[in-house]
Structure formats: C-alpha cells, structure tokens
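Record type: ASSEMBLY
Status: queued
Input:
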Amino acid sequence: MTQKGFRGPQVCSIVGISYRQLDYWARTGLIGPSLEVAKGSGSQRVYSYTDLVELKVIKALLDSGVSLQSARKAVECLRGDLKQDLASASLVFTGSKSILAFSGEEVVDLLQGGQGVLAEVFNIVPLKGFIKELQSSIEKLDFDSTRSVHEPRSLIPKT
Amino acid sequence: MTQKGFRGPQVCSIVGISYRQLDYWARTGLIGPSLEVAKGSGSQRVYSYTDLVELKVIKALLDSGVSLQSARKAVECLRGDLKQDLASASLVFTGSKSILAFSGEEVVDLLQGGQGVLAEVFNIVPLKGFIKELQSSIEKLDFDSTRSVHEPRSLIPKT
DNA sequence: AGACCAAACTACAACCTTGTTATTTAGGTT
DNA sequence: AACCTAAATAACAAGGTTGTAGTTTGGTCT
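Status: finished
Output:
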C-alpha cells in the first residue's frame, strides 16, 4: 500500500484555500502535487501529507499578511527537513533568510541576534498548532462523502 | 522653535523608499505628513520625526515580505504609544491583532501563547535597530546639501 | 461505445502597488 | 512682475494574485 494521497479539491477543503489558489500555486511552481501531476483536464493531481503541511504553512503566512512571493521563499527551508519532527519546530524567516528552529531557546537567540542590534523583522511560524489543525481536518475528511483519489463511485453514498 | 520637519524628498532619502511610494502612501491614507499637508503642486509636505519612525517600520515590514495592506494594520498600534520609549519595544502582530511589547519576556509569552497551542504566525519588529538606523540617516542628512523645509536658496552651496 | 461527472485547463477582469513620464504650481529670488 | 526650481499632481503601464465563468478531457460506469 503506497502513501495516502489527496486530490485537488480535498486539499482545498483540508487546508482552507480556494481551488483557484491551489491551481495557480501548482502552475507557478510554488507547490505542486508530489505524488502525481495532472495529465490534462479531467485527470487528478495527487498531493502527499507533506505537501499538505507545506500548503498549510503557506496559507498561514498569507493570513498573517505575508505576500505570496515571500511565502515562496520562506517554505523553501521546509523541503530539506521534512523527515524530522516538525511539530516541535518553528519556521523563522526574515527578508533575507529562513531556517527551522527546534527549540524555544533557539528562537529567542535569533530574536536577540546574538546580542547584536539588528534592523530586521522576524516572521515566526510555530508549526505545532498548524499541524494539529491539519491532522484534525484530515480526520474529519475520512467521514465525509467526498471522493478520495480514483475511488470507485459505487462505494460512495449518495449526496 | 517648532518641531523639526522633513520634506518629502528628504524623507525618501532617510527612510530608503521611492518618492512614488511616499506619495501613494500619503494619498491612500497609510501615512501622511503630520506637520503640514501639501497645498497643491509645488508645495511641500512636512513630516515629523515620529512620522519617520512609522515609515521606517513600514519599510521594514515590506522588506520582510509583509504586504502593504497588512503593514497598514500593523502600524496602527504605534499611533497611541509614541510617547513611550520605542527603542526598547517590539511590535508584535499576527493576522488579527498587533501590540507593542516592552520586554523580551512579553514577546516570549506571546510566542508561547500562554502555554496554549495556537495556530498563528507572529511577525516581530524589534524597533531598536530601526530607530538607530533612522537617527544615523538623519544625522547624515544634516551634512548634505539638500534643502530643508522652505530653506532660503542662497544658503545652499551649489551642487 | 456512449454517457456522465469531476477535475484540470483557459481566458479574462479586477484589484493593489510601484515605476515612468509629463504637467502643474507653490514658493523663493531678482 | 518675471523667472526658476523643486515638489506635488496626474496618467498610464506593468506585474502579481485571485475570482469568475466557460471549456476540455480523463476516468468510471453501464
């Protein structure tokens, strides 16, 4: 049994974004479906759980007022680290760099700039709450009547 | 002697923004000249020091990737507090609220959400470094040959 | 094979922000 | 009063992002 995949409209529901946004982000290279790309109209994109984490972070950044262009840069550092325990991490980014901090002390160090005086703005994304929400949304989906990837129709209750 | 004022082009030089930006921000109500509004083409806007602090913060937010619309909301909380010592404060804002924190502990508390698990992004602006830069830029201006507000021409060296 | 449906694709509008260029005009000097 | 300069004003284009509506087509079922 391979990794569980999520199709486009499911992803929108889980993460809380519009289909237009998801499509635009996939087309402009921000984040696409890592399990399966689309083969044309009528086919399906298939996203992984880790794609969903990343999308959730992007959405969070947008909600906090960060522009999509900056969110693009910020999530880059999530891509090499998704094997570690993200729920205990915080993404910290400024205009010029972004890193994952794995302790509250690390975050405080960054804020204080090692006792220097930096003219810098910090955007901090504690991942715990977002991952919790994401998992809750995924569980909720299991009870919904919407289709999973390439699921036979006859097994779906009528809506 | 009234408060020192700064004219439009000086402000752009001090804060590090384009004239177009300053003009747009004044016209769209983000921040305008608190000492004197423009009386038409050929006249001068006159900005105060506190206007400059605010502009510097807005610029910093833009540089960190925050959208102008969000920066508008974020700086609102500076407006009631400019009589206190800003250099020891940090502006902290999320998508939904913004406050000034006057100690590092206060900032850490906000990040930890009082031990709750919040799904929230924090944008943190430690003001010290920005105010330092601003003051440095203003001092540098005093040696420049550019005109101050309504300054007689004959006192200006030829450029 | 044909019918159907869901998902991707396409095209355009709207909005926000900034850059560029040209025009207007307040304020200072002679 | 005439002239000059700097600063504000006006107009338009461009880029990025999202919403809306219509079209195409892969995949499933009969």
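Annotation: Residues 7-9, 19, 23, 27, 38-45, 147, 153 of chain B lie near DNA strand D (CB under 10 Å from a C1').
Annotation: Chain B touches chain A at residues 60-61, 63-67, 69-71, 73-74, 93-95, 104, 107-108, 111-112, 117-126, 128-130, 132-133 (CB under 8 Å).
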